[in-house]
Every structure is written in structure tokens, then in C-alpha cells.
Amino acid sequence: MTKGNGRSATSRALDLLGAFTIEHPTLTLTELATRCAMPLATAHRLVAALEAWGALERNTDNRYQIGTRLWEIGLLSPVPRRMREIALPFMQDLYEKSKENIHFAVRDGHETLYIAKLTGHQAVPIISREGNRLPMHSTGVGKALLAFSSKEFIDTYCARPLARYTRHTIVEPGRLRRELAVTRERGYSLTNEEMTLGSCSVAVPVFDARGEIAASLGVVVHSVRDNLTKYVPDLKAEAAKIAKMMIAHHCDPYPGFVHDLPQGV
Amino acid sequence: MTKGNGRSATSRALDLLGAFTIEHPTLTLTELATRCAMPLATAHRLVAALEAWGALERNTDNRYQIGTRLWEIGLLSPVPRRMREIALPFMQDLYEKSKENIHFAVRDGHETLYIAKLTGHQAVPIISREGNRLPMHSTGVGKALLAFSSKEFIDTYCARPLARYTRHTIVEPGRLRRELAVTRERGYSLTNEEMTLGSCSVAVPVFDARGEIAASLGVVVHSVRDNLTKYVPDLKAEAAKIAKMMIAHHCDPYPGFVHDLPQGV
User: In this structure, are A64 and A94 located in the same domain?
Assistant: First the structure.
């Protein structure tokens, strides 16, 4: 009995945490219960336990949000923490030269997961956030990850519907395949207002010890600024240093990146 | 029935997450059960639910660690996220001038909670980490937070045992009180190898709309480098900009900072 209830209660409590997104960072009890298809009484009971521990906190509008304690615990996750510790100093060097948004990302499932971001006052405002996910076909770091993935993964990705974000997003599978071939050929990806109007990007792959794609490093600039290719030499140099450090420290990419391949294929 | 089991199962599952620390980022099932004073069977059942959801993941040594999914969810916590979004660009400006470790911290209970950190290749290696806690009496940002706290809070803090980290740590309440008075007087804190041998720091307070201490901003450099006071003008300028932005965006400090005051008093 305890087993059944216990397991399901834990899973339901985790579902409540999973209901929060960057688009919906705060939710009422009713919204939480609805999103999790849960009786209000159950949601109320589980939310109370989550709030008591600090996983959730109530804001001044009496809406629930992820608690600072969960932020602290989440930062203990070794994979993103070690990748950040390795990548950030090199990203810092790139930022100092460019003063633009610098991204370090990995693939998770069919999405781009942003592990680290550096930005400043002069950088163009963009929607990317650390710990946030964006598509692979419409972002620079995503295209770099996709272009150097296995043929099987690319086939799977291109067979899925390609969401359009701007009139420049590549949504035709054939065109995306040609774009990825060109990206592999020249060794870096380019986007031109494909995710957000007004910003364009360039990114390079970061390879692991087996020579497989592990992550990607990119710069996002305002689309009216001069040519992106000028960033490629620095991006490649820093990407090589990050790859070397990751290999030296046996820092594997985000586990999902490897684990989900069977499903990806 | 379900209620009792449900609530306790959720709380026990959260206890398992809380067992991980920066000193112990990976734990075996047995270690988890021991730390949470939980029967192995219960721990096994709850860990399975946590792992299935992605809150925990098992590494190659078959040890458990906080999962990347929890890292993603934790980053949705609005308070640290908004404070980081506001502070980081100004910290970036400080980093570019100094090339040293830059810290932005708040007080939580009787500890210094590091909200944001910028570092590079040239900065002295230090133990601070984003989301990590360090004492208030032995760190620059901590002393700045403590010095500008209420007399009641300072009394409470000084009445508690002051842990020694190096031979330079101030562990005598009277000496700490005098140090805090000097800090208030001159408007910035200084530490000299009080947390870690080889590093010293300078920090300034960040005030909220009520003129109360909300956070602190500091620089940590190698102790042999030249005088720290040269950083004070830039620190004060950036701290003022951060305070202005926090007030404009109604960005309250970490709730614990206010909520725990009654206990603090």
C-alpha cells in the first residue's frame, strides 16, 4: 500500500514541479492541478509539502513559483556544472573580444539545451536562457549540433515537423538537409533571423574524445552588424580548448545526449 | 490514508534531494538512506521515482547525482534568475576592468548565498560557486551583508560560534564587531586570507528601495596583488546601477533574506 501511494505521490509531486516553464514561471494552485490533471485536494496536499521544503515558494500575488532552494539543489547537478566550469572562462575570452551574446549548448533529445550564456549591455537582446531549450533547426548552436550528428539522427530530425519562428526559418526538410551539408562542409553554422527577427548567429561544433559532436559554441549578434565569419577563427580556437579540457577532465556531455540516441535513431 | 502516506512520501523524496551537497555531489543508495535515516527499501523506492522523472541520475560509477532536469527546473526560480539577469551585465563590466573573480551575493539565514559569479583564466582559483553558501564573517560579500544588517542581526550572528577557516579568520566576537563598525564607516568590506589562504577581497553593499541591505557585490583577488581599495569606486558605481535596476524592476532580494529576519532577530 505505502509503496503504491508513496511512489505515485512522489511522481505526482514531481509532475507539479515539471508544470513550470519559462513561459509560465508562476502558477496558481488551480492552474497546477489543471496542468497535472490532478484533483485540487491532491495538488493542495502535495504543494504544501513542496512549499514546506522550499521546492516551491508563494510570491506576493499568492502564485506558486520554483523555490530558491530548488535552484540551489539543481546547481549541484554535476554534468551542467562541470561543463559550465570548463566552458565559461573560454566563453569569457570570446565575450571580451566580441561584446556579443556567447552560447554553449548541448543536444538533448531533439532540442538545443543552453548550458551557459554570457551577455552584456551592448549585446542584442535574445530569448536564450541558461537551462532553456530551443529548436535545433532555427538556432546557430542547434544547427551546429545537428549538422555534425549521425545521419540517422539528421534523418529523424528532418522527418519531424519543422516549426516556423520567423519568415526566415528553414522549414523545408530538403533545404534544411542542404543547409546542414554546407555547415558540415565549411565547419560552422550560420543563422539569419531564423529564430528571432533582428538577430543572426554563427556557431562551431565541440567534439568529444571519440570525435563525436559533444556540444557547440556560438555568437549571436544584431543582424545589421557586419559579417559573422569574422568570429569563426576565435570560435574554433576556443571550441578546441574547451574540447581539450572536457576530454582531459573526462567531462561527458549531458547524458541525455548519448542515452537518447537509440530513440533518436 | 493516501494523505498521510502521500505527504510523507513527498517529504521523504525531497529529503533525498536535500542530502546532496557541494562536498557530496554523488551518493550511493546506502549513503542516501543513511543520511536521510530511511529504510533502504524506502530509499530504493523513492530514488526510483526520482530517477524515472530525471530529478536524480546515476553516473558511470552507479552513484546517484542531481539530474540535469532538476538543474533546468531550478533555473526557473524567479528570484535568483531575475537578480542574475539584472546583476550579470554590470558584473561583466567589473570583470572586464579587473579580470578578477566577481561575486554577487545575498544573505540567507546566517549564511552568504552566492547568486552570481564571473571568473576567468587570470582570476585566482577560489571555492565560491553559484548557488553555494559560505559564512558571513570570513568572506568579503558576507562581511558587507553583515555590516549593513540590523544591530539585532549582528548581535545574533556575533553571539554564535565563529568558525575558523584560516589563521586570519576573525573568530573573536569583539574583533568582528569592531571590523563591522569600520566596514559600515568606510562603506566597503575587506578580507585578507580569512576564508582561503592566498586570496583577499573587497565588497560593497547593494541597498533596496527602503535603504536596507539587499545584496552585496565584491571582487576576490590574489592576496599578493596590489591594494584592493582601487576597486571600490567601480564596485560602488556598479552596485548603485544594480540597486537602481532592482528597484525599477521590483526585484526583491531572496525571500529568505526578509522572511528569516524574525528568527534572525
Answer: no
Question: In whole angstroms, what is the distance from residue A95 CA to residue B9 CA?
Answer: 46
Cα A153 to chain centroid distance, Å, stands at 18
Min distance B132 CA to chain A CA atoms (Å): 7
- Distance from C-alpha of B147 to C-alpha of B170, rounded to nearest angstrom: 14
The residue count of chain B comes to 265
pTM over 0.95: no
Calpha distance B78→A246 (Å, rounded): 31
A122 and A46 in a common domain: no
If asked whether residues B140 and B162 sit together in one domain, one would say yes
* Domain end residue (candidates: B25, B54, B73): B73
Window B:95-124, CB contacts with A under 8 Å:
95-96, 108, 113, 118-121
Nearest in space to A138 (alpha carbons), one of A103, A176, A102, A105? A176
Cβ(A103)–Cβ(A128) under 8 Å?
yes
Domain boundary among the residues B57, B73, B89 is at B73
Q: In what order do the strands lie in the sheet with A26-27?
A: A26-27, A64-66, A56-58
* pLDDT tier at B254, thresholds 50, 70, 90: low
A169, A218: one domain: yes
User: Is B198 in the same domain as B253?
Assistant: yes
Q: State whether A129 and B75 contact (CB < 8 Å).
A: yes
CB contact under 8 A, A77 and B70: yes
- Each residue's pLDDT tens digit, A148-157: 999 999 999 9
